[in-house]
Amino acid sequence: MKEKAPLDRSFPSTAEPIQKLVQEFSKLPGIGPKSAQRLAYFLLRAPEEQNRLLAEAIISVKQQTSLCIICFNVTDTDTCLICRNQERDRTKVCIVEQPQDILALEHTRIYKGLYHVLHGAISPTEGVGSNDIRIRELMDRLGGNPVAEIILATNTNLEGEQTAMYLSRLVAHLGIKVTRLARGLPFGTELEYADDVTLTRALEGRQEF
Ligand SMILES: [Zn+2]
Asked: Which tens digit of pLDDT belongs to each residue from 68-115?
């Protein structure tokens, strides 16, 4: 059995359910202790129905989603909405690190092809090798489908560049055009945080890799 993390006793005057909630909120990205407290007290005052909907949404986000069997985007059916859309250009596959990168690129509304989510990037320093991300699945996919171009849209940090380099070598013999998001994206950028204009420019100005 997993051991329970001890509750923070730095505010012994706070009721335990509040402490627990603050502790859970503090584990979320971008939430410091102050924000965690604010959220906990907000929920304490909120209507019970609203809190129940929030709790159910948190549970179902894990229970009712899985990964698309084609592109590994998050989906609530076998294949995701993008793979199912017959109007998408099936000759282009844009390769991203995380599902939320698809959201960022879709927001630009200029890309009409398909995606492939790697779920990470190659990082020797963190012990992430090519077998730890969805590269084999990508190669299987490229082998059986008429893909004319792959767009390497991994992040522009060291891991993203290494991954892009690795993939470009891997597909070199397949005769597929390989492009990389380039212009406008400064080194170190995480795609998820790039603004629409920068991302649109980077897509339009993608260069042969
Ligand atoms: Zn999909």
From this structure: 999 999 999 999 999 999 999 999 999 999 999 999 999 988 899 999
127: left (phi over 0), alpha (psi -120 to 50) or beta: left
In degrees and rounded to multiples of 5, residue 100 shows phi and psi of -70, -15
Spans in the chain with pLDDT lower than 70: 1-12, 182-185, 187
Q: How remote is the CA of residue 89 from the centroid of ligand 1, in Å? A: 13
The Å distance, Cα 39 to ligand 1 centre, comes to 34
Q: State how far the Cα of 127 lies from the Cα of 152, in Å rounded to an integer.
A: 22
CA–centroid distance, residue 169 to ligand 1 (Å): 24
Could you tell me the distance, in angstroms and rounded to a whole number, from the CA of residue 173 to the centre of ligand 1? 25
Cα(31) to centroid of ligand 1, in Å?
Answer: 31
At 137 the pLDDT is: 96
Interhelix angle 16-26/33-45, nearest 10 degrees: 130
